[in-house]
Amino acid sequence: MEMVERGEVAQIIIAHKDRLVRFGYMKKTIKNYCFNATQSKLNELYEIALRYTSVKNEIFQRYGSISGLNYLSYPRQIRNEWVKTNYANKFGLQARYWKQAVDEVFSNIKSNWSNGFRKIKNNIYKNKNYTEVEKHYAFYLLKASILLYKAITFQSFDLPEIFKDKDIRRDKIHKYLKSRLRKYLRTKSYQNKNRSFQIDRNMYDIHKDNKGRTWIGIMGLTPRKRVRLQMTSSTESTGNLRIVLKGKHIEIHQAEDIQVNPIEGKDKRAIDKGFSEVITSSSGRKYGEQFNQLLKKESDRLSEKNKKRNKIRALTDKYEKKGDIVKSEIIKKNNLGKRKYFYQKEINLNEIKQFINLSLNRFITEERPAVMVTEDLRFTNWNKKLSKNVKRYFSSWLKGYLQERIDYKTMLNGVQQVVVNSAYGSQICHLCGRFGVRNGDKFYCEVHGVLDADHNAALNYLARMSDPDITIYTPYRKVKDILQERLRLSNQDSRYSVIKTGQ
Fold first, then answer.
1. Per-residue pLDDT, 89
2. Regarding beta strands 226-231 and 214-219, do their DSSP bridges make them parallel or antiparallel, or are they unpaired?
3. Residue 163 CB burial class (10 angstroms; 0-12, 13-18, ≥19)
4. Residue 419: in which H helix or E strand, if any?
5. Residue 273 CB burial class (10 angstroms; 0-12, 13-18, ≥19)
6. Most buried of the four, 38, 180, 453, 476, by CB within 10 Å?
7. Which one, of 479, 314, 449, 409, lies nearest residue 15 by Cα?
8. 488: which residues sit within 8 A by CB, 6+ positions away?
9. Cα angle 421-423-426, degrees, rounded to a multiple of 5
10. Rounded to an integer, what distance in angstroms lies between the CA atom of residue 266 and that of residue 1?
11. Would you say 285 and 297 are in contact if contact means Cβ atoms under 8 Å apart?
């Protein structure tokens, strides 16, 4: 497989390169569904989710801050304390449930601390007020959670052997660490939605009946009694599962290791993410045409739906001002519910997601690229590409979801992804470098006439991958100056060649 040269790598950013797996495995969430659940079963599952969430919030509240540092290295001691004191009895859950909740929360807490430590390390590394020994001491404390807790709470502790003969301003380091921790880890996590919980392999069983139907038995609130649900899939589930409740619908999520199958590609391809179609390749082929019609259909539906809801909401406000609270509450209960609204929205969003995934699959299977060059959309304004309603409902969501799927598809197929600076990529001609005018799907150049706007942008991104002057961090104003300077120099060269030929 052809790879990007070393000189080019210095000018690009490979998205998620720490997670990129070429000849191994990667995680994928498999969704199974249950049906024919009675109301009593749904009520029990919702009650489990409610109590499970209360355990998580209790842990977040008590150990999500500095007081939890003592437990980072060995969170099991919390479970031991709760078992001895019977503290967990107040939640009304079987032991396996609240223990699973404790483990899940501490994995989140560790992740939060790890992200905070990474930011603090960057600050310490760039701080010129500390010596190398003091920086080493600060890094050491960030790795030793118990010592860090004593340091930021100003408790006395024995200095490690490697620092005993060193000149270190300990108080200054401790105060600095405390201020940084307060800045980056000030907010405690909290879970508002009570609609999911996690179970391990001993908390469920799966079997098939005489008719070949697959059933799952989930541990309930009562010992030795399980909630039996029929599954749509016949595959055997193993390991931890997450039960997700969406109204009367039940989903079972399982993380599985899937093998990465690298495609034997040789070419480099750049793509332009658009609105009329999902992507346009630098080869000139378009994938996911009629994409704008799909988005417009859903945005128009939401706009019309919200107009009607706003009229009903205005009516409830009118009755409340008149003092007719009973009538207002009846209208809210029967006409302003959110369950059906979000269910319809989720169905239509899934259709859009499926369309995006099919388009990306077609691109990878048909063009088989070794390297995929994409634009960085973090600071790109799509508002000019989108209509008013589509911009309102889909602008931010589209950019995030499309980039997430590109990251996933490239990792799954062993394609190297390169992210380049997108500044003015769609406003210059790829043939002559002159600035032009983009209007919809057409690009107008003074020299080369009318070009396809998306294809032109994709070719500019492909050239920018190996551009030594424009990196992903180059500000857009500087990018414009670089492009104008190149155009000026090329015009000078062309005039010089004409004069020389005339002589």
1. 93
2. antiparallel
3. middle
4. strand 416-420
5. buried
6. 453
7. 409
8. none
9. 110
10. 6
11. no
Q: What is the mean pLDDT of residues 358-377?
A: 91
CB-based contacts of 203, cutoff 8 Å, min separation 6 = 96, 97, 100, 218, 219
**403, 35 in Cβ contact below 8 A?**
no
Q: What's the Cα-to-Cα distance from 255 to each of 199, 242, 352, 412, rounded to whole Å?
A: 13, 9, 23, 15
Q: What are phi and psi of 489, to 5 degrees?
A: -65, -40
Which of 184, 165, 177 lies closest to 140, judged by CA?
177
* pLDDT of the residue at 396: 65
Residues facing residue 204 across a β-bridge: 218
Q: Using one digit for the tens of pLDDT, what is the confidence trace for 126-168?
A: 888 999 999 999 999 999 888 999 999 889 888 888 888 888 9
What is the 8-class DSSP label of residue 435?
B
CA distance 137 to 150: 14
Decide: 475 and 386 in contact? Cβ < 8 Å: no
- AA letter at 357: N
* CATH number for region 1-24+260-290+348-503: 3.30.420
Please check whether residue 259 is in contact with residue 28, taking contact to mean a CB–CB distance below 8 angstroms. Answer: no
Query: Strands, E, within 183-266: which ranges?
Result: 196-199, 204-208, 214-219, 226-231, 241-246, 249-259
Domain ranges of the chain: 1-24+260-290+348-503, 65-184, 199-255
Q: What is the pLDDT of residue 23?
A: 47
Kindly report the backbone phi and psi dihedral angles of residue 168, in degrees, each rounded to the nearest multiple of 5, phi listed first. Answer: -130, 130
Question: pTM of this prediction?
Answer: 0.74
- pLDDT averaged over every residue in the chain: 86
- Please indicate whether residue 272 or residue 7 has the higher confidence score (pLDDT): 272
CA pseudo-torsion sign 425, 429, 433, 434? negative
Q: 């060269």: which residue's tokens? A: 493
Burial 41-57 (b: 16+ CB within 10 A, else e): bbebbeebbebbbbbbb
Comparing 493 with 249, the larger pLDDT belongs to 249
What is the rounded distance in angstroms from the CA atom of residue 460 to the CA atom of residue 464? 6
Within 10 angstroms of residue 93's Cβ, the number of other Cβ atoms is 22
> CA 429, CA 483: separation in Å to the nearest integer?
11
Amino acid at the residue 137? Y
